[in-house]
Amino acid sequence: MHALTRASGILLLSFLLGSPADAKRFTLQFDIDGMQRKVLVYAPDQPASGTTPLAIVYHGRGDDSVAFANAVKLHQDWPDVIVAYPRGETIDTTPPMRGWQYKAGTYDDRDLKLTDQLLAELGERYQTAPEHTFAAGFSNGGHFVFLLNAQRNAQFAAFAAIGALQPEYASDAPPKPFMYLFGRREDPKYQGDWAKTVEALSRHNLSEQRATDYLDCCKLLAPKAGGAPLVFGVYNAGHIWPAGGNQWLREFFGLGVVSKADDR
Fold first, then answer.
1. Are residues 35 and 8 part of one domain?
2. For residues 177 and 74, what is the distance between their CA atoms, to the nearest angstrom?
3. To which H or E segment does residue 142 belong?
4. How far apart (Å, rounded) are the C-alpha atoms in residues 49 and 41?
């Protein structure tokens, strides 16, 4: 685990949902440098023996973890893993909105610290492991996923960013499997930066030039020696979570590219 202090207090607020179709739901509350932070968690009622996969999903700017979870419903489509939805705090926007830090050092790294404590706490409560831990984010949450790839690379097996732009992305962190999705009906002025983000990720992941089809959404760039797979694509919508996003994430994180990368 990345440099982590356990001085901050933690409070567990736990309750079961009535519907048998849902996983166990609870809220974790952390004290991060005097700021109370919340994370909504869905966990299997009966986790499988051995390591339990963990997916942390970061909402976009101006959203909230509960509303985002109700809209995305990854926990319903992937009930055998732990799915955590952290809640962002106010960032420097007009008007003020919830969101995530863009760069290391901003907001005293409050969101990196939250992620550190979340990983530590869930690792104590469940048998989780970095090789089965995944990060995904939408919009501003996707920007934060790029930061996690750079700053907390060893704590995750793979990353996914949706509706985010990082055309100048570069990092000394090792390549990890990465899925990058963007809406076809996003503002046209962003399409150039989307293509540049794909190029930046392909450089970072040491990708081959030839792409192959992947699922019904994307292209796959296989890695050169020392690299990692890159999946990218556009979906038929604007700045919203894609209708097929949960299926694509499950395949990428749980069944397809990531496990094949681990087998290399």
1. yes
2. 20
3. helix 140-151
4. 19
pLDDT of residue 257: 55
At 16, the pLDDT band (50, 70, 90 cuts) reads very low
Q: Which run of H or of E encompasses 194?
A: helix 191-204
**From CA 41, how far away is CA 32, in angstroms rounded?**
18
Same-domain check for residues 30 and 98:
yes
pLDDT tens digits for range 172-189: 999 999 999 999 999 999
Provide the pLDDT for residue 59. 98
Query: How many Å apart are CA 99 and CA 92, to the nearest integer?
Result: 9
Q: Return the pLDDT at 249.
A: 97
For strand 97-99 and strand 158-162, is the pairing parallel, antiparallel, or unpaired? unpaired
Give the domain extent around 235: 161-264
The enclosing domain of 79 has a CATH number of 3.40.50.1820
pLDDT band at 107 (very low <50, low <70, confident <90, very high): very high
> Does an H or E element contain 262, and which?
helix 257-262
| CA atoms of 20 and 12, how far apart (whole Å) | 22
For the cut 90, the answer to whether the pLDDT of residue 256 exceeds it is no
Q: How far is CA 235 from CA 33, 128, 183, 186, 219, in A?
A: 39, 32, 5, 10, 12
Helix axes 140-151 and 110-125, enclosed angle (nearest 10): 70
CB atoms within 10 A of CB 91: 18
Mean pLDDT, rounded, for 1-5? 35
Residues 256 and 162: beta-carbon distance below 8 Å: no
